[in-house]
Amino acid sequence: MTARLILASVLCVLLLHSAAVSYAKQCSRIITAEMRANVLENVKNFPWAANEQNSAISAAAAYVEKNDDELWEMVTSQELPRDIHTNKEAGCPNCGKGITPYGNYPWQVGGDWKLKCPNCGAIYPKNDFWAFYKSGLDEHGYFHRELGDQSLLFNAEHPDPNDPLHKVYVDDGYGLLDEKGVKHRFIAYYNSWIHWGNIRRTFAALARAYTLTSDPKYAHKAAVLLDRIADVYPDMDFKPLSRMGFEHSHGGSGRGRILGCIWEAGLAQSMAEAYDNIWDGIQNDTELATFCSAKAKQYNLGDKSSPQAICTHIEERLISEILTSCTDGRVAPNPGGTQVTVIIAAVALDRKEETLKWLDFLFDQNFPGELNAGGEKPVQWILVEGIDRDGMGGECGGYGLGWTRRATNFPDLFALYPDYHGHNLVAEFPKLKQCFYIEPRLMCLDSAFPNIGDSGGTGTWGRLGSAATFAKGYRLFKDPYMAALAWRYAEESVERLRTADDIFKKEPLALANEIAAVAKAEPFKLKCDHLGRYGQAYVQTERPEEGRALWIHYGYSKGHSHADNLNIGLYAKNIDMLPELGYPEYTGAWPKRHAWTASTISHNTLLVNDHKANYSAGGKINLFAVQPPLRVMDVTSSRAYNDMKTYRRTVALLDVSDTDSYVFDVFRARGGKNHRLSYHGPAQTATVSGIQLVKQATGTFASPDVEFATLDGELADFYKTSGFTYLYDVERTPAPADNYYTVDWECEDLRGRIKEGKEPHLRLHAMTPCDEVATAAGDPPQNRSGAPRRLRYLLQSRLGDNVESQFVTVLEPYDTTPFIKQVRTLKVEHDADPNSVAAVAVDLTDGTTDILISCEERAKVKVEGGVEFDGQFGMVRLINGQVKLMRMSNATLLSFGDTKLVSEKAAYEGTVTGIDASDAANNLVTLDPPLPQDAALVGRTIHFQNDVPIDTTYDIKQVTPQGISTGDITVIWGFKDPADYDAGYKYLVNPGDRYVVPCHVGLDR
Ligand SMILES: [Zn+2]
Ligand SMILES: [Zn+2]
């Protein structure tokens, strides 16, 4: 008999048996009997499948050897607290802040119910906690501190009751006091991280081993644990612990069950999934019934007389409790996570009527219920409004990707329940497809994800995206581009395209082979891109090797943002040259997070009014021109500060060779007091040339009298403070600086990014007259490995009321020897606002001179040295005085001597007359006048000018006789009425909007 036949007959017996007791759940649903039978076949045929099975067996080996009593006793109950910190303010009782560099959750296991400091090696607590725990169990085997034997609570290193340390460092579950009387919550930390971590690993490894072997011994052991968890779970509630000061992942709500409500979701999913996975394996397990019913009798725990009674127990007291918790805020993870939890738990519960009710509820406008504090919304809100048109979630960094990654799982999760026919997500929600594309689009140089907001560590690089995700996307959408992505990420190997669930398939390599056949190997070229609501536009070189990339940020209303409008970043020489500080030491109300890490002054942007900018205020791209060697982005953030006339930045990346580029940066601002432009390079020290700085002996950037990290006022004000007291070791100019100077950072690197023989630098050329120039030290978060100790900041201040500024800067990332000889400001004649036109000459060491002209709006300008220009951005490259090339954008004229570049039009402009989003693959915008039927406009950007606070720049995918198509990037913004999804959509582009398609013209010799 083949394995499949055996299993099929087991299944029939089960069905009969179930019918006899009128029991609802029919079979394992997530990994079915058929899938387990496929595994056994695949193991015979494929070495990789045998390897996967073997690793699952090894991973479960230690757990399956444990006896049932041992597993049963592992499960701790409500009154043994859980905590994710011991005391993050005090650190280690022995070495204090010495533990900080070891991360947010630094403690290591130092024995049973003991934690060890990774820095000094000290071990806490000093008592035998498990002995005390066992003395404190009630009739159900649940721990209560007051029942415990107090005589067991003493410091084992100081057993003499007269020893002053006899009762010090002793933890009864609720924390210990150190010699200074400061409380540390070691047992609660151990219980949360180590003990419940072990419980979770144990049932998960056992359940997986069962799905890969069909051997019921694994199902039995997992069931012992799950049954015992079902005993304690109804009492599990984090709120009482939160009230007592225990900390967990609940976003401030205090809610949760075993863990805080955010992380409870992952644990809940793994418990529900494990239950479903082992269900088939325990239906005839009389030994399980014998064990559990004996325990039930001894501890007064209800009916466990049969496997079915045990299943009912688990379903009623664990699975149903999880589902209820999704509506009462005790399971309230980051967006999308509640839905995932509901689907897995409802499928595991597998009572048709109830399960379908829960799956439908995910689309109900009342989901998940008003008690859910996580701000969670129904599935269609996530896919229509929460996710942006580019497929990114509504938060920064990994938080936003969490939405996206959970959304990419939705279609397969709903498919777990074949009786569910409510929605076809792939057909109904156009943004879902973009969730599969977004990760490569978020990266610069195919290797670095800008650390925008609470994201990453200072100076980190890291690649996003996975072949498995693209393969899944291809399976769902059959888009050849997704196949191409999968093929590239798998390095053109069918083996590497294998996904985690292939082992359960009848033809495990079918998808990989199909992708290999569809994907055409094309030479890979980096693209410049812009992401509207996420607010990340970047330009970069075409090749990642020795590549350079420049990004600017203008996100709108995103969670975990910093006050960082128009912040810029630069990757060059394999280094993050303007390292964004990234994830704070801790989130929540951690003062340094708000006063410094997330504040404006710590970013490479402009601080006004000595006050943090508005949070995630959004911006609009005015120009996005890619004409190598020149690439220009111009972005306005009119909501960055209230009542400012201008807050706008033009940045350009200019290649001078295959390996070097520089950045031209013009920041224009009008209104408000005290404009302070902040930059920081990748080193603790910087060499300043061309101006004299005087060391300030004491204090901080705030003043010589104000100490480090003091706040402007009351504690609550750390949300508003300037951040000046986090800038220390200050040097300032004694008088206004109106001459050209440079600042040079020799890159420091704790991440092994500087290759042998290289000496990368960033040199900044400052061209702006200022009332004061200062440098100072600022600290990145210190609990990330590889984080620099401090970075050197440059602060250029233009002081006074109603200030108007045009800051002009050139950034030169170079290796060992600079390639720029000098940067000169050129005189300009024009009729426009004096702060709206900037022209510089960049003289390179090889005899090349670049003349760059940036106008805020199109202007007619005569530039010193014989250049005439009429437009927004122009560039002339001269080699030994001869024109080598010219570039101009949104312009009609650029001339130098006899060489003249002209364009009939600066831009195509007009009005939007209609939109049509009915075909998700072909979003149409009709224009008056329409664009010329000229293929050269495909791939160019079109800017829609309107009041939408999100950037509304699109790439033209197709020029139609009536207008354009934005392809599969939707023009839908979200729901028209958030209270009534049936009222239809609101759009990012609307009839009446102005449109602009700037022309880019070039000349090469
Ligand atoms: Zn220590
Ligand atoms: Zn930041």
Give the number of helices.
21
- Give start-end ranges of low-pLDDT stretches: 1-22
| Largest β-sheet summary | 8 strands, antiparallel
**How widely separated are the two ends?**
78 Å
Mean pLDDT across all amino acids: 94
Structural class given helices, strands, pairing?
A: alpha+beta
Give the cofactors and ligands. Answer: zinc ion
What does this protein structure show overall?
The structure is a single chain. With 1005 residues, the chain is of the alpha+beta class. Helices cover 27% and strands 23% of the residues. It contains 21 helices and 41 strands. The strands form eight sheets. The chain has an eight-stranded antiparallel β-sheet, with no helix packed on it. Strands 25, 26, 27, 28, 29, 30, 31 and 41 form an eight-stranded antiparallel β-sheet that branches. It has a seven-stranded antiparallel β-sheet with strand order 35-34-40-32-33-37-36, with no helix packed on it. α6 runs parallel beside α9 (261-282) and α11 packs antiparallel against α12 (337-349). The longest helix is centred in the first third of the chain and has 28 residues, at 186-213. One zinc ion binds at residues 92, 94-95, 98-99, 117, 119-120, 122.
Give keywords.
1005 residues, alpha+beta, eight-stranded antiparallel sheet, 21 helices, 41 strands, 27% helix, globular, disordered N terminus, binds zinc ion
Blueprint of the fold:
Blueprint: H1 3-20, H2 33-45, H3 47-64, H4 68-74, E1 108-109, E2 115-116, E3 123-124, H5 129-134, E4 176-177, E5 183-184, H6 186-213, H7 216-232, H8 239-243, H9 261-282, H10 286-299, H11 307-328, H12 337-349, H13 352-361, H14 379-386, H15 397-414, H16 425-428, H17 431-442, H18 467-477, H19 480-489, H20 510-518, E6 529-531, E7 536-540, E8 549-553, E9 568-572, E10 575-576, H21 591-597, E11 606-607, E12 620-627, E13 630-636, E14 646-655, E15 661-670, E16 675-680, E17 687-689, E18 694-695, E19 728-732, E20 741-746, E21 760-766, E22 772-778, E23 791-798, E24 804-815, E25 820-825, E26 828-829, E27 837-844, E28 848-863, E29 867-879, E30 882-896, E31 899-902, E32 907-916, E33 924-928, E34 941-945, E35 953-955, E36 958-959, E37 963-965, E38 972-975, E39 985-987, E40 994-998, E41 1000-1004
Antiparallel strand pairs: 1-2, 2-3, 4-5, 6-7, 7-8, 8-9, 9-10, 11-16, 12-13, 13-14, 14-15, 15-24, 16-23, 17-20, 18-19, 19-22, 20-21, 21-24, 22-23, 25-27, 26-28, 27-28, 28-29, 29-30, 30-31, 30-41, 32-33, 32-40, 33-37, 34-35, 34-40, 36-37, 38-39
Bound molecules: zinc ion (2 copies).
